[in-house]
TrEMBL record:
PROSITE patterns: HIT_2 (PS51084). A motif (Histidine triad motif) lies at residues 135-139. InterPro entries: AP-4-A_phosphorylase (IPR052908), FHIT (IPR039383), HIT-like (IPR011146), HIT-like_sf (IPR036265). This is HIT domain-containing protein. Pfam families: HIT (PF01230).
Length: 178
């Protein structure tokens, strides 16, 4: 018998999904420590230099920052200055600015990175996968045709062709003036 035939005898209904087992990601799930506001890196960043903290743009109620651990080159996050953890805790004004900055970020990424698409998402709460659950943040991940390869799976390595500082400088320079 093949593995598929063996699997057909197991409980449950087979589906079209293939499973990719990634036990190395448990560190993100198992770490239950969440920073308090006084130790939150997202609250700290705006008090520092933009280059040092990878801030691309500062708005009135929200800002755009490069992800320090990017999924792809140009991975951005848009977040309010205010330390709130959930989307429904943000004010209408904050949500409006986050949405506007997200649109602008998509345009700027297209101009600078020439990406083919974008993943946009928020993980709400630690149980949903938010690395810093106490501070709302929206991910904007540029995608290219065939940008996935075997490195992350086989070698536990992500190929990022541009340095964070270089990409931040290019995105900040391309950001439209208010």
């Amino acid at each position: 018998m093949t593995e598929v035939e063996d699997g057909a005898r197991l409980p449950g209904v087979p589906d079209e999904f293939q499973r990719l087992w990634t036990p190395h990601r448990m560190v993100y799930v198992a770490d239950t420590h969440q920073p308090e506001q006084h130790e939150c890196p997202f609250c700290y960043a705006p008090s520092q230099d933009d280059e040092k903290t990878l801030i691309v743009h500062r708005g009135r109620l929200a800002f755009v920052v490069m992800n320090l651990y990017p999924y792809n080159t140009g991975h951005l996050m848009v977040l309010p200055y205010r330390h709130v953890g959930l989307y429904n805790e943000a004010t209408l004004e904050e949500i409006t600015e986050i949405a506007t900055l997200t649109q602008t970020a998509m345009n700027v990424l297209g101009e600078v990175a020439h990406n083919d698409g974008v993943n946009i998402g928020m993980n709400q709460g630690a149980i949903a996968g938010a690395g810093i659950a106490g501070h709302l943040h929206q991910h904007i991940v540029p995608r290219w045709a065939q940008d996935s390869n075997f490195f992350p799976i086989i070698a536990k390595t992500k190929a990022l062709p541009r340095l964070l500082g270089e990409m931040r400088a290019d995105l900040a320079a391309a950001w439209p003036s208010p």
